[in-house]
Structure formats: C-alpha cells, structure tokens
DNA sequence: TTTAATAATGCAATCGGTTGCATAAAATTT
DNA sequence: AAATTTTATGCAACCGATTGCATTATTAAA
C-alpha cells in the first residue's frame, strides 16, 4: 500500500513549512499566489488528499449533515433525498442518512448516532408515532441547527420546511365538491402528524364553506399504504350508504384502493371520485388517472439542505425563521372528473 | 455552549490515565472489570461522547461505507438503500450515499469524493453510460474493498452481488411462450449494462429453445422510464404486425405502457400479454395486475453491506469471491394470463 | 521467602491538519 | 537612509483518542 501523502511531504519537498502548505491549499489570503500555485501543483503531482479527520478534529466541524426520515423507500422521501444529495454534493457537504422506520424508538437511536457523529446540522422528518422532542434537545443545547421538513414537530423554535397542507387539503376537497360530490370520505394517516392534521383541517374547512356537515364516521385513520388501500375498499363495499368521493392522503394508498374498488365493480370516478396526494408517478399510469396534489419533494430536499448550509456558513441566519412554505398544486385528472352521470 | 467532555476529563476525575479510560471504553481485555464499570459510569455521568475524528485519525479507518447509485428515487434503489441503511445502522457503520444521475461523469466525481472521504469500503451500482473502470482504480490501489451490486462492471476482480438476470429473463419469456405467445417484443435499457444484457440473453435463450427466431426489430432499447412506456405503446400501435406479448425490463415502464395501450383500445392481456421486472408495488395496483419478476432489493442491500462489513472486520474474505447471486422469482398475475381467447 | 508468571495500568509518541502569534522580507513613507 | 507599514512565512501548540512498550501490583510456583 502506497504511503499516504501529507502536507508534511509537500512541505519537505518544497522546503517550506506545513503551515504554509495548509494555508495555500485552503486558499488563505495571506499566502502569495505563486506559492499557492507551487503547492497545488506539487500536491497534484504527489497525489495528495486531505485528511478530513485531522481537519475535522482541529476545526471541530464535520461538513456533514444528518438526515432522519421515516423511510427511505417511499416516493416522496426518496425524491426529497435525491434533492438533498444533489445540493449537498454540489456544496461539498456529506449527508448521513438514516431511517426511523416509523418508530420513535428507532428515531431516538438515530438521533443519538447523529449526535455522536457530530453532524454540523440535522434535518428531520419525524416518525408516525413520535410524540416527544426530548431526543433533539442535545442538538439545541450544543447549538447544532435542527430543521424539520414535511413531518414536523411544533413549538420548539426550530425552523421547518413544509407545504401548506391545509390549503392542499382544502383544494382537494373543494374540487370534489365542485364536481358535485358531498359524501366525501377522508382517508388519512396518524393525525398527530402535522401533514395529516392539516390536510384534515383543509378538508373540514371546505366542507364548512359548502355547508356540508362533517361526520367523524367519514374520517378514517390508516397506515396509508398499499394494504390500507385495499382494506378501505373492502370497508366501503360493506357500507350501506357509500360515499361518493374519497380524499386519500397518499397516492399509493389511493391507487390500491381504486384498483380494489374496480375489482368489486365500483366505478371510479362515476360511482366514487378519488383525489390522492403526492403526485407519485403511479398516479399517471393507472386507469383512471389519479387527481392529486403535486408535492414539490425534490425542491423541498434542495431547499432544506441549501438553507442548512447557508445557515452554517453564516450567509443566512435561521434563528428567526419559523417556516418556509413551498407551493403545492392540485392536478386534476380523470379519477375525479365525472364523465357520464348514471341517469 | 457546554464544554465537550473528553477521556482526559474522565481520567482526571477518576485519577487514572487516559490510556486506561480509552481501553476501558473499548472493552479492552487487559482492563479490570471494576475499572470498566467505573469508567463507563463516569462517562455516562459526564455526558461523554467519543470523538470519531480523533479516533479515525489515529486508527486510520472511518467506519464509513460509501454507496454510489444511479438514482436515489427509484423503487429498486431506494429499497436497496433501505436494506443497506438497516444493516449499517445495526453494525455501527455510517453510509455516505451519492447518486450518479445515470451519468458517468458524475459517477467519477462521486467516486473521487468517496475516495477523499476515506470510506472504508465502496458499494457501487453503475450509471447507464459508464464504460470505464478507471475511476475505481484508486480504491484498488489503496486496497479499499469495492463491491458492485445490481449494475456491475465485469473483468476487474471485484466481487458483485446480483440476481441471475439471464435466468429471470428466460423465465419471463418462457412464461409468455407457455401462454401461447410467440411474437414477443423485448423492451430493455442500455445493453451495455449487465442487467439488461443478461435479461436479453435469457429472452433469446427461451426463444431458441422454443424454436422461435430472434428478430432484432423486436428488441427496443429505451430509457425504461414512464415516458418510454408511453412511447413504446405509440410505436406498437403504429406497427403493421403487432407483437402478442411484451417483456419489459422495468415495471414502471411496463405499467405506463399498459396504461397507454389500454387507452388505445388494445387489450392486455388478450391482445398483448405483458411481463415486467422488479415487482414494484405499482404492479399490484393496476388493472390488469402485472406479471413480473420479484427482485430481492432489500435483501440485496442488506447482503451488500453485511458482506462489506464482514470483509472489513476480517470475518469473511471477499478476495476470492466472484459473485453472490440472489434468488429472483417470477410472479404470475393477470397481465400475462389469457382469460378469453378471441375465438 | 524468593522467584517467576500473570494481570492491570501508565507513559508518551502518534495520527495530520489548523491557527494565534511572532518574525522576516519587501514595499512604502518620511 | 531610517522608520514604518504591508506582505508572506514559520513556529509550535492544539484537537482527542489509540497503542507499543515499560512498569507496577498481584498471584502462583518453587
């Protein structure tokens, strides 16, 4: 194994001090341009690579941002991560990604690992069942910036990056009402989570404005996954008075539900209209194509990392930022467009 | 900001040497059990956290594994990564993940970043257009283990973790033939990549065995994404002699194609049967449900990281391992089951 | 009791950059 | 030409854990 080249090797060969080499490599203003060129040339020649550990050890910073997500393999999260990776990569930062698998317990363990890994900042989208902020306190104590995105915790002075879920929920529901629907069943996730709670708020608001009474029986809390979608269809089939529309807070769940409904001979959108959420690619490939809310996942990831890095660099202070809200958008497709009314 | 606790603080308070503290924390056999308890208790009490940089610097290892994937946000890759993260987390390793976005250029840059980050090992699934091994040479030179998974490069003595794509391609095609199909169009990706080349081999083998001549015109190289699926449907519609079956090397593409075909009034599976690849959740929620090859993505991720860690720990030497092949499986669903033959 | 073997701990160098402060060299001003 | 300012470089301590080797304490064998 070839010996690793250090700044001392460069210093020796050029007959200058390691301090000068270090400063030259870091483009320090006090160093003569010619010296910089000399050092960089020699560094390339010898195949020098900086030792981040020595550097981090001394500088007490890591150029690493931690990310905790509920799961890696969901369309939304993998897309958010894709955006994050892109920006981090461009800015010379590393990402340490871990998943809580929707469990607070694992999230706590992950937070601790991140803390011990001395990430410079932490980006978090919380698990389904997280009900405590406790495990993030160490970060605040050490003044390590913490930003929540998508699924956020409130009342803790941490900035958050979100979409306006209330507005999105309102638009989805209102659209269904405009299409002449009034018995709208809302399928959602854990209502402790802002994303679902807010969508519900929007749903209720739209009902209220249109003088449709809200019924608890038309609000179902589920796991919002593929299986849940199938079960929802089963339950709907068994209902004496079926809804005429569904607002489902996740496309994959919605699509699974539509698929099952169709198998049962229930027509979408004529018997039941459906609006999903996320604008997952799957929304475009089923019949009928799914009306949904476009979720700017990639942008959210990019902005989250960008904000974090700017804050770390001191370019932008986040201390007074409460929330950054991104634009979402209703995309109307066939699943909510009533083609022919059963006369 | 509270001062960071070091082993020196613990040593001072207990009136022992830092060396003993270090050994105690690392459970060194030469240290008395009582001392270990003492040290660990004090460490907890003071809120000590190990400084990985000091440790890495000294040990010249990082407990970090680099991963380069074509994209983060595809079903297969995000699932592989989920498996990887799970094992790495359990084993106390960190993952640095980066995406090449299907570009060799970016892949080269990523490899360099990984090299400079001094990952202990590297896991790679190559980009669509990667045709050189050059950028991985530095790793071999420094004896940093390199494992390819899914999309591999051959002839370089690096172990790889794959499924038997040839067999899978054979089974998919053979199944279609068993269903009475003989004009089977194969939609695939860049044939430079083993996954697609091998699936093609399997396809050809199945044709050969059944004495169906292979036609170049029935082999289409595409981007295998959603858009490609739509285009394929367009092209099929325009064909004078349409195929009676499709073997598409990716579910999302297959599903998009089926959706477009149906819109054109072409029935699946009666007019055209379809087999996809991956067993993406989307395969279960469209009508007809998609026959596909189950791809053990999560397991692949788990095994890749597990193998890497075992190799790094010396538990298992990979130098003589050429390839680990995982089991894939044909899952027959409706898209290839001919329900009623047009009499 | 003395000697040998074993167990437990400490000393001090090391990993490789970074940075405050001092100093030397060059440029500018008086 | 001397004094002052500016520019460039070097010295040496430092970040915090690890580990080969030496040393001391303890136990077992002679």
Biggest sheet, spatial arrangement of strands of chain A: 2-1-3-4-5-11
Assembly of the depicted chains = homodimer
Return the average pLDDT of chain A rounded to an integer: 93
Largest interface: A-B, 56 and 55 residues
Unreliable spans of chain A: none
The largest sheet of chain A is: 6 strands, parallel
Compact overview of the structure:
The structure is a homodimer of 343-residue chains. With 343 residues, the first copy, chain A, is an alpha/beta fold. The first copy, chain A, has helices at residues 7-14, 18-25, 33-46, 52-59, 75-91, 104-116, 137-141, 165-178, 194-209, 226-237, 251-263, 282-285, 297-313, and strands at 64-69, 94-99, 121-124, 146-149, 160-163, 184-188, 219-221, 245-248, 273-275, 292-294, 323-326, 329-331.
């Amino acid at each position: 194994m070839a010996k690793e080249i250090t700044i001392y090797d460069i210093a020796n060969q050029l007959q200058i001090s390691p301090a000068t080499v270090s400063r030259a490599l870091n483009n320090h203003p006090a160093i003569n341009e010619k010296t910089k060129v000399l050092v960089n040339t020699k560094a390339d020649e010898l195949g020098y690579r900086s030792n981040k550990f020595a550097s981090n050890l001394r500088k007490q910073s890591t150029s690493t941002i931690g990310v905790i997500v509920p799961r890696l393999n969901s369309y939304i999260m993998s897309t958010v991560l894709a955006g994050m990776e892109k920006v981090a990569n461009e800015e010379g930062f590393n990402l340490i990604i871990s998943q809580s698998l929707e469990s607070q317990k694992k999230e706590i363990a992950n937070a601790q690992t991140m803390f011990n890994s001395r990430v410079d900042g932490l980006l978090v989208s919380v698990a389904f069942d997280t009900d405590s902020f406790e495990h993030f306190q160490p970060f605040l104590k050490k003044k390590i910036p913490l930003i929540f995105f998508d699924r956020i915790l409130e009342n803790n002075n941490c900035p958050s990056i979100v979409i306006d879920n209330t507005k999105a929920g309102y638009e989805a529901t209102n659209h269904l009402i405009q299409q002449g629907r009034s018995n709208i069943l809302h399928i959602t996730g854990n209502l402790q989570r802002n994303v679902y709670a807010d969508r519900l708020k929007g749903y209720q608001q739209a009902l209220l404005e249109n003088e449709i009474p809200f019924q608890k029986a038309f609000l179902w809390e589920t796991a919002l996954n593929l299986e849940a979608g199938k079960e929802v269809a089963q339950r709907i089939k068994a209902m004496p008075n079926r809804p005429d529309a569904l607002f489902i807070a996740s496309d994959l769940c919605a699509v699974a539900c539509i698929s099952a409904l169709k198998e049962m001979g229930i027509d979408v959108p004529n018997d039941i209209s459906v609006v999903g959420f996320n604008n997952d690619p799957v929304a475009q490939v089923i019949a009928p194509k799914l009306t949904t809310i476009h979720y700017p996942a990639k942008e959210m990831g990019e902005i989250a990392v960008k904000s974090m890095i700017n804050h770390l660099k001191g370019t932008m202070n986040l201390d007074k930022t409460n929330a950054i809200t991104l634009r979402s958008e209703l995309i109307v497709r066939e699943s909510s467009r009533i083609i022919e009314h059963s006369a």
